[in-house]
Amino acid sequence: MQISLILDCSGSMTELAKHKILQGIVGFFQQYTLISNQKLELNYCTWNEQGVLNIALDQTINLQFFGKNHLQDVIQYIRENYELNYILISDGCFLDTEIHFLQSEFKRQQLDHFRIICVGSDDKRALKASNFGKLHVFDVEEVSQVIPSLLLQKSLQSVDLIKLVQ
Length: 166
Prior knowledge:
By secondary structure, the protein is of the alpha/beta class. Helix content is 42%, strand content 20%. The chain has helices at residues 18-35, 71-80, 96-109, 124-129, 133-136, 146-158, 161-165; strands at residues 2-8, 41-48, 51-55, 85-90, 114-118, 137-139. It has a 6-stranded mixed sheet with strand order 3-2-1-4-5-6. The longest helix has 18 residues, at 18-35. The protein is globular.
């Protein structure tokens, strides 16, 4: 399974050491792929005012945090690379309009392969309370549940639920 980690590199991530937490989460996922009995491949992207850009693993060590980002760039990236699974690691400081956009996109494309990890944000309450957030938004403390939730979703998609009911 391919998983693309989208790393929020906006200026707000420098506050309250959120960038250090982001680095720790990236390290956790790298360790997870080594010990997991699932075949997992991680890809890395930065997300800032320049949009979503693919980077190499070694570039995750010295990330530059600046500017403001827009959630619409993430949705566009997912549309263009639909075959992957995505984990957005962000402080979750999204505008209400962005949350509504995410919810409408979720209904339209069924973004079951998309998860968000909220890093130190008071605004995550709005995101977690949204229809999208109930199954797709995780706190930092829940980071170990994110990949299993993607794996479970993949398993559910491959099962014929009608046969299961009969």
